[in-house]
Design brief:
The chain is 72% helix and 0% strand. It is mainly alpha-helical and 330 residues long.
Length: 330
């Protein structure tokens, strides 16, 4: 796939995720990072919050622009969390929920470690079963559907928990389902999927398993009927390219559906305060809010994100290829 096609595919899935699955309940106080208690919001505090969120967005934008220019792999969500924490420390230091902050920081440490371990195990299995085989291409055609099952099972779970949270929330609001039966409980108590409060409900496991089995069957049919021009390792690469494109499309879609909502959170708070007839944010809106205007923000934000990918994305791509292969492998 050429770079131009990759950008177009990323733009389509990012846009689709943001517009159609990202306009759900937007958390304006970033997932409990700030907690102002039950006393409510005065007009003075609300005005400080409005300008504070503006400062947090500006700080995150400046830092992301500089980091992207120098090819540094940074996170938009993490940058906004840092901006919100700094704003909270200035306005009301006691409002910072340090327990939540510690959880976020620990996730920054645990995520790359767990990702590295899983990547090592996955590549070890592929190397032993495929690369070391006398005919790796034939072995790939046999094992690829089997390997696709756990891959798409995990993608199915992640897709539900990250990309479809708003979709499930809308269905619950309409009275069709109980969201707690499809999404992990906020205060999970058990790994038993059949019990209320499970970390992973049985419905989510069933949907993910169905996705994995369907993807595995489709890949088996394609590999059986498709006439490959490549042989040997080139054929192996061709098969894995398909899987890589599919997983990349999922990442773009989930990023649009979930991370865009996180980035829009401070903007939604600013909008609520600025358009409030009383001049302050109501207590019921400090945790979550759903506003019709958000759809337009998602629309414009997703388009701007695609423009950023096309204009400055190559800095990040160049940095990834340089540091991942040259520094650590050579």
């Amino acid at each position: 796939m050429t770079l131009r096609r990759a950008i177009i595919v990323a733009a389509v899935f990012e846009f689709t995720g943001a517009v159609f699955f990202g306009s759900h309940v937007t958390e304006t106080i970033r997932k409990g990072v700030l907690d102002f208690g039950d006393a409510g919001f005065t007009e003075e505090l609300s005005q400080k919050l409005m300008y504070g969120f503006m400062a947090a967005l500006l700080a995150a934008a400046i830092w992301l622009t500089i980091a992207t220019r120098f090819g540094m792999p940074v996170s938009t969500t993490h940058s906004i969390v840092g901006g919100v924490i700094g704003m909270g420390l200035y306005i009301q230091p006691s409002s910072v929920n340090w327990e939540k902050v510690i959880e976020i920081v620990l996730s920054w440490v645990a995520s790359p470690l767990l990702g590295g371990i899983l990547a090592f195990v996955s590549f070890f299995v592929i190397k032993r079963l495929i690369f070391n085989n006398e005919d790796p291409f034939v072995q790939t055609k046999k094992l690829a559907p089997i390997l696709a099952l756990p891959t798409f099972f995990v993608l199915g779970l992640a897709f539900q928990f990250k990309g479809l949270k708003g979709f499930y929330s809308n269905l619950e609001s309409s009275g069709y389902i109980d969201k707690s039966a499809w999404l992990p409980a906020k205060e999970g108590t058990t790994f038993n999927p059949f019990i209320d409060g499970a970390w992973i409900p049985i419905n989510s496991l069933a949907v993910a398993l169905a996705i994995g089995m369907f993807a595995s069957f489709v890949l088996w049919v394609v590999l059986k009927r498709y006439q490959f021009k490549e042989e040997g390792m080139e054929g192996v690469e061709r098969v894995f390219i398909w899987l890589q494109i599919i997983t990349a499309c999922y990442v773009a879609f989930a990023h649009g559906a979930n991370d865009v909502a996180n980035a829009i959170g401070p903007m939604a708070a600013i909008y609520d305060i600025a358009t409030s007839t009383t001049g302050y944010i109501e207590r019921r809106k400090c945790r979550s809010t759903s506003i019709p205007f958000a759809n337009r923000w998602y629309w414009n934000h997703s388009r701007c994100g695609n423009m950023g990918l096309q204009s400055n994305g190559y800095y990040r791509q160049e940095n990834h290829s340089h540091y991942s292969f040259k520094r650590f492998c050579c």
